[in-house]
Description:
By secondary structure, chain B is mostly helical. Chain B contains 14 helices and two strands, in the order H-H-H-H-H-E-H-E-H-H-H-H-H-H-H-H. Chain B has a two-stranded antiparallel sheet. In chain B, helix 11 (about 230-240) runs parallel beside helix 14 (about 280-295). The longest helix of chain B is centred in the first third of the chain and has 30 residues, at about 5-30. Chain C has a three-stranded antiparallel beta sheet. Chain C is globular, with a radius of gyration of 22 Å.
Amino acid sequence: MNNEFVIRMEGITKEFGSLKANNNVNLNIRKGEVHAILGENGAGKSTLMNILSGIYTPDHGSIKVNEEEVAFHSPQDSIGAGIGMIYQHFKLISAMKAWQNIIAGPSGSLMLDKKSCKRKINEICEETGLSLNLDAYVSDMGVGQKQTLEMLKVLYRGAEILILDEPTTVLTPQETDRLFSIIRKMRDSGKTAIIITHKLYEVMEISDRVTIMRKGEVITTLNTKETTQKEIAEIMVGKSMIMEFPRLKIPRGDVVMKVKDLRLEDLVSMRKLNGVSFELHHGEILGVAGVSGSGQKQLCQALTGLQKIDSGSVSVDGDEIAGLTAYDIFNKGVAQLNFVPEDRLGMGLIASMSLVDNVMLRDYQNGDSIFIDSKRAYKRTEELVEALDVMHPGIDKPISVLSGGNLQKILIGREIMSEPNILIASYPVRGLDLGVTHKVVELLNEQKQRGAGVLLIAEDLDLMLEVCDRIMVMYCGKISGIVDPETITKNDLGVLMTSIDEECPNG
Amino acid sequence: MDLNWFVCFLGAAVVAGTPLVLATLGELITEKSGSLNLGVEGMMYMGAIIGFTTGLQTGSPFFAFIGAALAGILGAMIFGFVTITLRANQIVTGLTLTMFGTGFAGFIGTPIIGERAPQKIIDTFVKVKLPLLGDIPVIGEIFFNQDYLVYLTYILIILVGFYLYKSRYGLNGTIVGENPKAADSLGISVIGYRYLHLAMGGALCGLAGGYLSLIYVPSWQDSMIAGRGWIAVALVIFSKWNPYRAYIGALFFGGLNIVGFRLQQFDLPVSTYLLDALPYLMTVIVLVFDSMRSKSRSHAPAGLGTPYFREER
Amino acid sequence: MARIVPLENCSMAKKVRIRVFAILMAFTLSGFLLLFLGHNPFEVYASMLDGGLGSSYRVKETLIRTIPFALTALGIGLSFRMKFWNIGGEGQIMMGACSATFIGLNFQQLPSFILLPLMAIAGMIGGGLWALIPAFLKVRYRTNETILTLMLNYVALKWITYLQYVLWRDHEAFGYPKIPNLVKNAQLPKIFGLHIGVLLVPILVIGIYLFITYTKKGYEIRVIGENEATARYAGMPTSKIILGTLFVSGGICGVVGMIQVAGVNMTLSIDVSNGVGYTAIIIAWLAQLNAIAILVVSFLFAVMVEGGSYIQTVFQIPQAAASLLQGLILFFVLGSEFFIKYRVIRDRKTRIVTEGEV
């Protein structure tokens, strides 16, 4: 490592409406280092990197690459300066082959030269230790392969500086190890890597220096070797206390939901459930872990009647619900089955409608009148907003103006208002900051205390190990194990997430 | 119905299919980059009237068709400006373009209803038998004894296929239509390619309109396009966004377009007024069959109809 | 460098200002077109107004034209709310007119107070079923409804042509291809000099407004339109609602067909809808699907169309000028939405903020 700066960002400010995503940020990156950018969700890491990769234009501030001032108006400018970004949400064309994804771009010959493209990629692969079948369709690839493809894409364009945005979120612990060894190899060959993350142990493991951000500002930059996990954690959260998520220890009750040999084939996403069986008890939180695309979504949809099952049974308090429509399942007074969807504004909330209209989605049917009881709807909305401390500009305003955390509060608040027997929560804390995450976990615990059975689908293994009473691991549309979080290690979980030795394309 | 009648019928189907091929190719290119322009009918009307009036003014076949193409491009650029730059809803804007184009043609064309295309243009586009290819039995008579614009269409199909599947620009444009975010991150100009594809598509739709008014009819008539633009939109779906399949579909519908007229001599038990409904009814049937078949996987560009704004969070 | 950022709150007054400005721009642009053709645009516009509102007779004609515009826009507006792009108003009007005429021609001995409601019901069923075809195919097979409804317009047109020229042709009309006129019993009675169908306008405007805003079904329609996944998640029977709404949507168009046959033309012909189905799309969109705004826009459009046919006789400007102008207006209003939703920031150092206006 030397002391040359390949990137200097000075006084960067970027606003979205009234939100200051970056406020007077300074960042220096040395040549040949692995530099971690650490911060909670919403700290402004991604915005900063999107500025560096030319997606956003900053309101103020300057960027220097190799001590030369640059102005990025588009990603092309940034690519031209040797910066390559590997996005958290892959930017790949599923309907195309790997090599087509790599070769595309504004510069190069008029005709596509597949041969020389492949030759060049093979050279890169040898140099870095990456490997990939270039003729495979993206739609047939797993997450790990897609990430490899993203890296090859930027390296093919001659990137010297790689930005990896939360690269390990979707990976198993084993895949993460492999990725880190490749990053080290690239560093040794002179490339620079910037890793955006909110996971502390990753910072300690891979980085040379770490920059910590909070609420849109850079707090400090430290040499990783000279600091401790505890110290950076304190800087990141801004208080000297690190919040923990307590497991609520209460005896669990009877079985509330019994799922037996559930099978279905999702024609749209080509994913399956291959015989899923488990039991959910009153008063417990059952976690569902697994690489994304292992059938979690299909499971949720099958249980809530959003997707038809091929065979198997689902019973709630002894009554069979499989085969009923979403409408019937919801109306089965015995078991209210609620489902906090993964994509908040995609499914569950209606962006352009008001808070009131959104809150009444679950109980607008109340009463025999053909008219909506709007007095009741207003009252309930006010109660919810009050109880969960939702920040809002007015309950008549479209819900889309709310921040992610407040949206999630409304969504969960609405679902638990009906006091369900079973609460299915998929990815309820994704993208939320620590404070709101804490609130959400508290709400889930309250439901458990009340006697509801909670099915918690999430990707954050640390959180699940702390909160859940049992963890069920899904792989390839099956359950590869149900484990006790008190005794299992994260590594063993990782093994379960990938271990069944059979062909399983997922991604 | 002997072979001779049949060859003659198919030859006429090729001619009737030509405007459909052009319009379908145009909409196909447009949709490949992610714009769902439902204004095909409108652009065809604009091409038809401008091509026709330019022909009347100049008497030149070349300028007439240049005019037709430019009119189509104008329509496409209005669509592009409103949907890409000003970010309006693509479906409504496309419908508006259709209404605008129809009104535009009526506005300019009403005084010249019934007027014939200049003789010079009609003479230029008589059927010309190609050497060698035209001598192939049956096939030669059907495909290679046609006017120049039919031959130009053959070339255009190959060019479009070549552009989309073999060239860098075509690949980039396709990526814009599949995933504009990905395209942007690669440094591919989403806005640039969408405008480019719209312009190419508009030119082809304009040519299609010009072919109808200058060669196919060839005089100015009210409601000349008669839903062909919409059939072209349906043909793009039917073709699974493949230019070669689009040609086959267009030929089929070209045949349907003339079948009522051609069967008149046979004293059928069905009224020709009802046979005239065939192309539209067939479009419905084809679309329904297509959607029944491809329930699981769609060949449509994944980003079709979705606007892209880089800084939107 | 200019950048575009979303504008969070746009006041009502500003929205109106922007839209009015857009409409003025459309008039200005078509004014240049008129100038180019050698007319004085002010004179043309003035006589357009004169043609639409210049005398009590003209006002009456304009009002008669407002009726089908408003009713059809209300009808297809219902399907637009669900993002079901029903552009088949034209065909639904024709099929409604067709089935109403069938009753009118075959049961003419019935007294008026039985015959007319029967015809209206037949019209509703005719238009409703015609709309139900694409609705069913969309719900069942996800077939593209835009193309489907449009193709069905042409099929309906060819069907009416067949009726007019062959099947129902009046053989006493001296070779002129027309369908016999409806008898007195089958004609709508008059009220204030207009046919009685005019009463349907305020009833539907208020009814649909109340229905969409305050009823549970109306809420369901709004939710489905904004986010179908969420509607399913909430357990709404989305397919049933889509089918039901489309039947009503097409049914209203069908009633328009009945009204045109029994109240205006007194016979069925291929001109029965005369582009109303398409104009209504523009009206519904310009009115942002708001029932009361639809009434206002329909009236303005009726003035434009009546005025359009007037200037045809005065200036020999083709009547299509009116539809050209309508298209332009919609383009400008569509484009102007940009200035309601976004603002443009120029030059990132000095940050001059330009407010809405073009």
